[in-house]
Amino acid sequence: PGQDEASIHAQLDKLYAGSKLADTAFRLSWLDKDVAAFKASDDAFIKAAVALYDDDRRLETRDKELAGKLQKAYAGTQQALIDFHASRGEAVYPDANSTMRISFGKVQGRTPGSDGSNWTAFTTLRGIVAKHKGPIEAGGEYDAPAEQLAAIKARNFGPYGVKALDSVPVNFLSTLDSTGGNSGSPVLNKRAELVGLLFDGTLDAVISDWDFNPRMVRSISVDSRYMLWQMSTVDKTARLLEEMNVR
Predict the structure, then answer these.
(1) Among residues 19, 176, 212, 242, which one has the fewest Cβ atoms lying within 10 Å of its Cβ?
(2) 3-state DSSP call for residue 221?
(3) Half-sphere exposure of 115 toward its Cβ, with a 13 Å CA cutoff?
(4) Domain coordinates of the chain in residue numbers?
């Protein structure tokens, strides 16, 4: 606490300089060590791990106890929701834990979004350029590859550009009901064609585990056209596309 970014980087550099764990043989040699050996080690990262161990275990125990209390509360809350919807003649689907889950929805933005602005259904390559700030070392959170920026500037969209967007779609919002663990789930259109991969939800959609509101809940997926554009135009992976029989 209270350290600036330069001080934090200096401390991290000191840790890495004082550790041999990057060496595979050295790292493997610790698999058979006992507690005393760990406590006696002068390796910077091992010393840090030993110093943090007790507090990490305390936090782990606390989190497990909290998870148990939440699970118990969830059962009662879920039963209340079931009874509430039943009183209104509405069906309630199960949470589908550890089973295949299929959700139906449509591509749709949101007006207004939780921040008061309009959320369009699609983001585009223009957003990549707008957010690009350079390498992390220079303070930029977004660092788009030079090859990608050049392709966008040249408007080299290939067959993946969408006229209505005047660009290639990158991500899209939808009314699909998703939860933790759904990241990577395929998104199919009505012809069962892969159109994207779901990877997140908007922040105010977290409540959907308890109550799904189609006016608010939005899932976020990467558009398959962006994936194909990136692979073919930027990464030049025509061989992989051929192997996957992508046309």
Answers:
(1) 242
(2) strand
(3) 5
(4) 1-92, 122-243
* Structural tokens at position 139: 């303070």
Beta strands in 30-168 (DSSP E): 122-124
What does the block give as tokens for 76? 């009662």
Better pLDDT: 36 or 177: 36
Phi-psi region of 155 (alpha: psi -120 to 50; beta: other; left: phi over 0): left
Q: Which residues, 6+ apart, have CB-to-CB distance to 75 below 8 Å?
A: none
Question: What is the three-class DSSP state of 119?
Answer: strand
C-alpha span between 109 and 120 (Å, rounded): 5
| Local structure of residue 140 (DSSP, 8 states) | -
* C-alpha dihedral sign at 167, 170, 173, 176: positive
Q: In 34-192, where do the E strands start and end?
A: 122-124, 169-174, 185-188
